[in-house]
Recover the amino acids of this structure.
């Protein structure tokens, strides 16, 4: 049985840990509000742009632009969005497991699948699971998401697709729903495909191209990739803060329960020690008589 000193020391250690988890929860809550506002604000433009491009993908010929043309099943690129830090529940593990599952399930469909990761936690999780499939890792960008960052990564992806390094590009990330709910999402970035619910609308929509169809497609299709990536980064950032706030709240409650159990154990041990001392005193007094 641990001594009173050991129990008291452990109670102090748990209290110190609880102070840290409470502070981290408050920081995550403050960041969550800003991140959620940014993610929600980006959705209307990204969704409308995706709808327009989906209609174009239905109306245009397959050879109208490389981004609209389905290719073979040779090489695919999976872009995984995680965080650089942990202590956020299953935020990093869930999309990483989905990426591993995607590679395993599509290994027969594609001759080769490469993995590009944003966030060092995704790299740490998959480094020993997928081996040399990890081609590039971006670090230290999830804490401050800007469109310029999404643009640079998007340009890299677009360049690799245009020179036919890859035949398809997929995006895996946590979509923000609430502070306690994040949905792992798998999207196909390239080639661009119309959503099932939008296919029936394509025939009823017509577009006038100015200055020309080729120039409009050459400008809007790469931009769509950058915008969708930027939206996913914002969604992932909001999801990270929500997951961290929820995880730290749970950790603080667990610490409170542990402190209560340790305090009860301390009081019982202290009572047992006092009782033992009283019995020794009484026994000594009785032996003197």
């Amino acid at each position: 049985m641990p001594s009173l000193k050991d129990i008291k020391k452990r109670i102090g250690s748990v209290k110190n840990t609880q102070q840290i988890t409470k502070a981290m929860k408050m920081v995550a809550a403050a960041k969550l509000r800003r991140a959620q506002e940014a993610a929600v604000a980006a959705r209307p433009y990204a969704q409308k742009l995706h709808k327009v491009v989906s209609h174009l993908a239905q109306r245009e010929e397959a050879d109208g632009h490389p981004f609209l043309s389905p290719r073979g099943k040779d090489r695919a690129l999976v872009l995984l969005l995680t965080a650089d830090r942990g202590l956020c529940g299953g935020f990093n593990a869930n999309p990483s497991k989905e990426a591993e599952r995607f590679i395993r399930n599509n290994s027969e469909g594609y001759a080769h699948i490469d993995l590009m990761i944003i966030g060092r936690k995704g790299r740490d999780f998959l480094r020993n699971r997928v081996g040399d499939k990890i081609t590039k890792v971006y670090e230290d960008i999830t804490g401050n998401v800007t469109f310029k960052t999404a643009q640079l990564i998007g340009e890299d992806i677009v360049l690799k697709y245009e020179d036919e390094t890859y035949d398809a590009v997929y995006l895996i990330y946590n979509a923000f729903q609430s502070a306690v709910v994040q949905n792992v999402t798998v999207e196909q970035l390239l080639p661009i495909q119309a959503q099932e619910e939008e296919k029936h609308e394509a025939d009823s929509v017509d577009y006038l191209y100015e200055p020309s169809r080729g120039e409009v497609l050459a400008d809007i299709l790469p931009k769509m990739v950058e915008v969708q990536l930027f939206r996913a980064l914002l969604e992932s950032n909001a999801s990270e803060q929500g997951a961290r706030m929820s995880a730290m709240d749970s950790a603080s409650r667990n610490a409170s329960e542990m402190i209560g159990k340790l305090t009860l154990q301390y009081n019982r041990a202290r009572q047992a020690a006092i009782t033992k001392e009283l019995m020794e005193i009484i026994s000594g007094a009785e032996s003197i008589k």
Remarks:
- The chain has a mean pLDDT of 86.
- The first helix runs from residue 4 to 59.
- The chain has two domains: 4-22+247-288, 34-243.
